[in-house]
Structure formats: structure tokens, C-alpha cells
Amino acid sequence: MDAAFTAEQDEIRRAVRELLAASRAPGDDGSAERTADGYDAELWRRLARDPGLPGLALPPEYGGTGRGPAGLAVACEETGRARLPSPLIATAVLAAPLIAALGTDDQRTALLPRIADGGLTAALAVPGGSLATALGLTGDDTGGAWAGGGRAGGMQARPVPGAKGWRLYGEAAQVLDGHSAGLLLVAAHAGGFPRSRTLLFLVRPETAAGTVRTRRTPLDGARPLAGIELRDTGAELLGADDTVDVTGALASAGPPAAALLAAEAVGAAAGALERMADQVGEGNRSSGRATGSAECVKHRLAELYARVQEARSAAYYAAWNPAAAGGLALAQALEALRDTAAEAVRLPGGPGPAREHEAHLSFRRAAADELLFGPAHRLRDHAARRAGLFGGPAPDPAAPGTAERVAV
Fold it and tell me: How confident is the model at residue 406 (pLDDT cuts 50, 70, 90)?
């Protein structure tokens, strides 16, 4: 495999980095995270125009540029380096591939060009806080039990008699960018016991009666979460009919999403390491002591650099071959980010509270992503079981005692 970046990918990286550098000052106070959208809407529109972030992996016939996961991974690494709050992950990484895979021609034509030009953001709403399981990253659940069933809660769907529409009721507690998305892609359980299945539905929250969105207080402000309640809400089925294999499509979308999340985490780790290296080089000017003179600090920075580069190689291998390495790459990237951020928090002799604040934010990003998409030991355990290393199927993360067994 040729792992070298193409000139086009290098141009994407340069364009994103320059635009972010020009738009966000060092020591950004996080004001964009506190807006109603949770991100800088004008900056998002500029990123959508050039270099066309939300459409990088979409086909040209739907307004995208057809660069595939590898092209989008380059952009994700740069947004991670800047710790940019944006709807990129929710819209382009999670929702758009499912619309492209399952939507009818009319649905793809109506929605994907608007996503590609930045005019429409989307969010994937999975009930039960089970996004990692739904995406097949930490467990296999081909029946879609995480969506709820019968009286078990979750999200329920019923067809409208004599019409094509559906009505949804239930809740999803942790929806990434769900408070601001113009389109919700909702996983819901339909049918009774004989024909029980999980389907995906399109909900337009601005016009759909019975939609209640509550913005949560997130661990990482750049990863805003929302609670979604649907109270007999009208919805459109994604796809031509209710026989589509939604759980299979979600499981297929999981490894590419993991690869892109890994690239973003690698960017965040690299950014934290660069700031730490600058801090060591500057030393503690107030005391006149250069922190970088301690050999142990230099050695630790070298170790972290090697870990970040290893995680970066794994992330891009996964972007080129997501089915083989998506979950493993994400586990490695999250651990590299966590360790780098933890060391930045502990590093002595910094030039002031701004750097300390940035280090804590990087640590929060790693913790938030592990809660939403991991944790790392489950990502590894599931990947190993799928590869047949343990001679059995992956355990159900919801089963009693699973956390203890896989943590060993």
C-alpha cells in the first residue's frame, strides 16, 4: 500500500490549516462553543465553500468532491489540531454516509447537496446511549435491541394507517450536535415481536411537532450533546421501504467513522504535544529555569512524539482500509491523546494559565470521545474477537459483568 499523501491531500491540509489559523486566535476563549449553535456558523460556511469540508467524501453527483475517507481524514486531523467546534463529525462522518447508503434517489438528491455546501447539518440520534454498539465498534447487535422494543423504552415507530408517514415516540439521551442540527437521523424500533426491526427516519426538528431538544452540559464544550424527545412526531422513513438492513448499514458505517475520529484525535494529540514542546522550550521565565534542561522531560516528549506518530500511521491506514483497522486505530489514537494531554497537565514550569487551560481541554476531549465512542479497551476487545483471536463472538457490552471481563 502506498501510504504517501497525494498533492491534493496536502493541499486540503494546507487550506484547512491556513483558514483555521486566520480565523481563530491562539488562546481562543471558547466563545463559539457558547453560541446557540455551539460553533462559529460563519467559519463553518467558509470551510464548506473552500475547501468544501462537509462534501469531501461525498460523490460529485451529490455536490461533493469524491475524495473519500482519506481526504476527509486529512481535514479531520486539522480540525482536531485546532480543537475546532463544528458539526463536521455529526454531519459528514456519521449522518451523511447513512443517507448516501440507504436513502432513495429523491432523498439523496434533496439532502446530500445541501450537506455538501454546508447549508444543512445533520445528527444521528441513537437511543440508549449506545452509539458505539450501534456502529458495531464495541459489540455486535444485529437485532438492533439498543433501539428499544415493545415496552422496553428507547425509540418506537409506528406507521400512519392509510398513509406513507410514520410517527415516532421516545428519547435519545446523547445526540452529538443534536441541539442545532437541521436534520435528525433517528434510529427507532418498529413492529411487534413477529416483525421486530430497527429502521432509520428523517425528522426535521424545526417543522416537526412534538420534537423537544435539550442541550446538555458536555464534558468537552467542542463536543456538544443534546437530549432528543419525540412525542408522536411525524417522520419520513429513510430508504424505499422497511426491509432495508439498517443495523448492517450502521455496522458498515462504524469502521470508517472510527478511522476519521482517530484522525481527529491524532490531530488533537499533535496540537497538545506542539504546545507542550513550546512550553518546555520557553521554560519558566519568571524563575529563569529552563524546563527543557531536564533530560527526563526531553525523554518523555520523545516517547509521546513516537506514540502520536504511531497513532497517526494507524489512523491513516484505517482511513485507507477502514474495515480492517477502524476500531483499533481509534483506540490507539484516544490513548495517545489521553496520555499526551495528561502529561501536558502535569508538566511543570509553564508560562501561565492559558496553556494549562488548553491541556485540560485536550484531556476532556479524550475522555468525552471514550465515553461516546469507546472506551479504548472495548474497542480493542471487540476488534480482537471479530478477528477470531479469542475464538468466540464479541460480548454484549450491556450484559452484566462485561466491563469487568473485557477490562482484564
Answer: very low
